[in-house]
Amino acid sequence: MNGAVIVPTILTNNPEQYKMLVAKFQPFAKRVQVDIADGTFAPAITIPVNNVWWPQGWEIDLHMMVVRPSEHLPIILQLKPSLCIFHAETGEDLLPIFDQLKNAGIKAGVALMKPTYPGNVRQFIEKADHVLVFAGEIGKQGSVADMLQTEKIQLIKDINPNVEVGWDGGANLKTVRAIVRAGADVINVGSALTAAEDPSAMYEALTSDLDKRGVVL
To answer: Domain range spanning residue 86?
Structure first.
């Protein structure tokens, strides 16, 4: 096993659908990413972060697609997810925010949009526990993966060899093997699981694919 993991993602503006997705993932998921969007940084509006909840035993990654991370920080510190990811492109200085997260026992993550070159946000990558390579369309599931973004993974690890690198966007049975071979540690999966007839079987198939060698054509 290479150590990479499949992490289901939840993105919705409907509390009832949120509850349904939690129930759908609960039989097999241990770690889940919840996407929060404010309608400004990302065109979508999701449930607000203060409506986020999860079953006991889940490891939660909060992916915050928001313009002003500092405004959301108090509720995040109360929620105490395992990891909180903010975007490098917000314009706020994330370093003091990272300090507050870490002081509360929450891992700090930074997400990079497709145009963002890792070297230009070195200060965030050096201090982060997790760097998320965003390779889809922000605020929606079911987008096509921009596989050129895999080139960022080694650049990120050159800056911070100990950082966990995540991938978000277009991960499915056709792409997951190439993503993990490029060095990703976490592959976030949305529509490939939510739209599957049997999400548990799809999760097992994706997890099994992480160990395979060769290229899927």
So the answer is: 5-209
Instruction: Render pLDDT for 11-37 as a digit per residue (tens, 0 to 9).
Output: 999 999 999 999 999 999 999 999 999
| Residue 191 domain flag | yes
Residues 89-93: contacts with CB within 8 Å, 24+ apart? 89/41, 89/113, 89/116, 90/41, 90/66, 91/67, 92/68
Split into its structural domains, the chain has a count of 1
| Residue 63 near residue 82, CB atoms below 8 Å | no
Rounded Cα–Cα distance for residues 90 and 32 (Å): 24
| pTM exceeding 0.90 | yes
Question: Does 214 reside within a domain?
Answer: no
User: Do residues 128 and 157 make contact, with C-beta atoms less than 8 angstroms apart?
Assistant: no
- Using one digit for the tens of pLDDT, what is the confidence trace for 162-180? 999 999 999 999 999 999 9
Left if phi > 0, otherwise alpha if psi is -120 to 50, otherwise beta: which for 170? left
CATH of the domain at 168: 3.20.20.70
